[in-house]
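Weekly puzzle thread! Below is a chain. First person to post its structure in token form gets bragging rights.
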Amino acid sequence: MEEYRKSTEGQVMGIIGIVMGIISLIVAFIPCVGIVAFLPGGLAIIFSIISIVQASRGNGSKSLGIISLVVSALAIVLAAAWLMIFSGLNTITDRAMRNPGQLEQIEKGLRDAFKDIEISIEAEVEEHSTQKIDSLENKLRYLEGDTSSKSK
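Winning reply:
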């Protein structure tokens, strides 16, 4: 019976890939600096792929390379999300600076929407509070023995 041996091929590149992937993931969570995570994330992907290829050729474990590939891909996706958010905000502010009247219309629309939400929340709270008082009054009347009178 032959022994099945695993080698350590690709482990060094996998460790480098996972360290760079974790660094890029940490950097990607920082709002204004998250875009910088593209550089270490891209390098981590390259090292991860090299790790997986070396492990395949040398009968080594590919798990470290796969994990570092996933972490670095997540960091790049997060950095891309920050890039889209900030570029969208830049576009919005640029349009607002060019056309101030449009910004005032957006502000008025948002105030109206928040006012409608506030009114509906107040109405709902008032409705629930009167129901609680009503049910409390009924319970007290029931406890006192006055079951003939109902709520208001």
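Puzzle host: Confirmed. Bonus trivia for everyone else. The chain is about 80% helix and 0% strand.
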